[in-house]
């Protein structure tokens, strides 16, 4: 494959066989023109009458530059055109400028438009003019009108070869652009996936720590035992968070980190228990998975449901605790429905409630739902509190 960003003096990349093929093609054309130099008038056409060494020199100038056409497309085209013009005036040409066509193809393929387009305008004009002048002036015994067909053929060979190279260049450039866009899209999706995972790991644990730290600070003097219990929760949660962060960073760095099972629907009870320790009275209800079977769900979909519930409950603990929260995970043959609602902070606390689209957690839940062509809704409830509602089709595989 030929490189596209051609610069003079810089070797284009490609298979090792391509330069050898160019060398062989140049050698064949050189041999053909050496044969033209040895032809006589037996076929009734004008023939070369100069010294044989001159014919060999012109033959070499026509064919041999093709061996380096991938390195220097424009200079090669110029040398070949000059040699073919001389060959035409010396009656050494008996083919429609094939060497110029091969050189013009590389000009259209490898040179930028600001150089290849002027070459397209000049090369056919020079070649066609040389053929016509040879027929009309240098060799007036030939019919000038009959030479117009040969002129048209020469122009077609050079212009068609250049056009083919230019079209191939455009198609390859478009293919590279699409490939670059796919790579950028894949990188962006992976970056977002890592950001969501890190947010899920850190946000839940730090929210629990922050809530319990506030409890310890508030009741430290009045109820030392509750303060000690809160500090114990902080210690356990911190250790768990650090261990999980180390495992995650080890995986990202390519280290042999110990593997742990991905979060699953079986961890919802433990998740509700952690939220209760943070002051959220969680009412958890899971329906349909017993009859429909969680085994019918892909692992990624089960993890997604867990992460959505985790983030929604974490937001309740962060923004509304102490409060009541209802978590409903209902599955049927068509979809999984996740609804998390809370009653809001106790009266008089006056904590401001977040609204879409603020918050990385809400964005993460929305992104997870959209990955499965699902729906996501979140916002304040008319009767107070906040609600999160997600619908995920069961039959969708993870697209990433």
UniProtKB/TrEMBL annotation:
Keywords: ATP-binding, Coiled coil, Kinase, Membrane, Nucleotide-binding, Phosphoprotein, Transferase, Transmembrane, Transmembrane helix, Two-component regulatory system
Residue intervals passing through the bilayer: 20-39, 45-67, 74-90, 147-168
Domain Signal transduction histidine kinase subgroup 3 dimerisation and phosphoacceptor per the UniProt entry, residue ranges: 190-255
SUPFAM superfamilies: ATPase domain of HSP90 chaperone/DNA topoisomerase II/histidine kinase (SSF55874)
Region Disordered: start-end pairs: 340-360
Catalytic activity: ATP + protein L-histidine = ADP + protein N-phospho-L-histidine
Annotated protein name in UniProt: histidine kinase
Organism, as annotated: Streptomyces laurentii
Lineage of source species: Bacteria, Bacillati, Actinomycetota, Actinomycetes, Kitasatosporales
């Amino acid at each position: 494959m030929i490189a596209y960003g051609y610069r003079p003096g810089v070797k284009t990349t490609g298979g090792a066989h391509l330069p050898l093929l160019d060398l062989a093609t140049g050698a064949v054309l050189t041999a053909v023109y050496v044969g033209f130099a040895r032809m006589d008038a037996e076929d009734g056409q004008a023939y070369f009458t100069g010294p044989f060494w001159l014919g060999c020199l012109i033959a070499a100038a026509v064919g041999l530059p093709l061996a380096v056409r991938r390195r220097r497309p424009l200079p090669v085209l110029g040398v070949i055109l000059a040699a073919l013009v001389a060959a035409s005036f010396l009656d050494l040409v008996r083919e429609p400028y094939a060497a110029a066509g091969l050189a013009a193809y590389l000009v259209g393929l490898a040179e930028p438009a600001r150089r290849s387009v002027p070459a397209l305008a000049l090369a056919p004009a020079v070649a066609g003019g040389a053929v016509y002048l040879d027929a009309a002036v240098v060799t007036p015994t030939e019919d000038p009108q009959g030479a117009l067909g040969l002129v048209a053929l020469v122009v077609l060979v050079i212009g068609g070869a250049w056009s083919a190279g230019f079209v191939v260049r455009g198609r390859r450039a478009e293919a590279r652009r699409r490939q670059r866009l796919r790579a950028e899209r894949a990188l962006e999706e992976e970056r977002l996936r890592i950001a969501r995972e890190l947010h899920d790991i850190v946000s839940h644990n730090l929210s629990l720590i922050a809530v319990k730290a506030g409890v310890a600070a508030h009741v430290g003097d009045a109820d030392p035992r509750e303060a000690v219990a809160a500090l114990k929760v902080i210690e356990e949660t911190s250790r768990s968070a650090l261990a999980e962060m180390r495992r995650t960073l080890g995986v990202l760095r390519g280290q042999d980190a110990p593997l742990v099972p991905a979060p699953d629907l079986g961890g919802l009870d433990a998740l509700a228990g952690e939220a209760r320790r943070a002051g959220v009275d969680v009412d958890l209800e899971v329906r349909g998975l017993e009859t429909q079977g969680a085994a019918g769900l892909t692992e990624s979909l089960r993890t997604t449901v867990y992460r959505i519930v985790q983030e929604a409950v974490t937001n309740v603990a962060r923004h509304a605790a102490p409060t009541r929260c209802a978590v409903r995970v209902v599955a049927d043959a068509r979809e999984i429905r996740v609804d998390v609602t809370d009653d809001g902070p106790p009266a008089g606390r006056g904590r401001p409630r977040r609204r879409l689209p603020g918050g990385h957690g809400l964005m993460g839940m929305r992104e997870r739902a959209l990955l499965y062509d699902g729906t996501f809704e979140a916002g304040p409830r008319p009767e107070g509190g906040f609600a999160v509602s997600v619908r995920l089709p069961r039959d969708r595989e993870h697209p990433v």
